[in-house]
């Protein structure tokens, strides 16, 4: 699964840079683009080429900066469909050298469409891991995998060093109460659990490359065996770092599995996204930015459980005000 995620990330970035190049070319030299592609010099063509260039720049921004790669990959597929429709109409009214050029361009767009479609499908499937259906399946036992990515405006070495000091993890991971190093590669973890209880387990680092990645797993008889991997990838701007996290929980069936499902709520991905948002704030500003009076840690999870795009109920607001 991790290999597929890496492939989707690489392909999405590649498509993003392709869109950037096409967009710049179509805006900076529209006449050259029209001539090479065999498009006529009509007023319509003069207007359409820059518009397509602007669209490509939007695709580039989404694919290179957004974590929702699947959404932006599908927008490229939609754009490809529009381009193929326009090229088909142009082919019906062209002959000679211009037609041959249009045939070549159409073939290239078809190949790009196949690549865009493959990327969109794979990105969508990758995003579905850790979604609500996956969480519901975990209540009957099984593995639940969560993934998240963020970009932090700090060098990879600094982000790695902060994460490698495992005792820093509770500063941004809301479910963790404490992580205590017990050796160079071993540690003891304590986390909040449903119904006001705590769970504890030992863990060990099983793979690491300074400045690049850290992988760990629980050891012994943990109630919920788990493992994780974090990769630190230099961002294209040469200054920032992309942080890619994968967490895997081996959830048992029965009451324990139901308790874990209750803990994660309806949006398990959102909790990990929020953790990385806090990590970004800690490293970039030195603190987590939040509104005055907002609850924190276990109190926040208890009083304001996360739900997708829903306002707090009157009862929850009253409870928070009285606390």
TrEMBL record:
Q: Where is this region: Disordered?
A: 290-323
Q: Where is the Coenzyme Q-binding protein COQ10 START domain?
A: 154-276
The UniProt keyword set, sorted, is: Membrane, Transmembrane, Transmembrane helix
**Source superkingdom:** Bacteria
Q: Does the keyword Nucleus apply?
A: no
Asked whether the UniProt record includes Transferase among its keywords, one would answer no
Q: Which residues cross the membrane?
A: 102-121
The cross-references to Pfam families, in alphabetical order and at most eight, read: Polyketide_cyc
| Official protein name in the record | Cyclase
Q: Which organism is it from?
A: Couchioplanes caeruleus subsp. caeruleus
**Classification lineage:** Bacteria, Bacillati, Actinomycetota, Actinomycetes, Micromonosporales
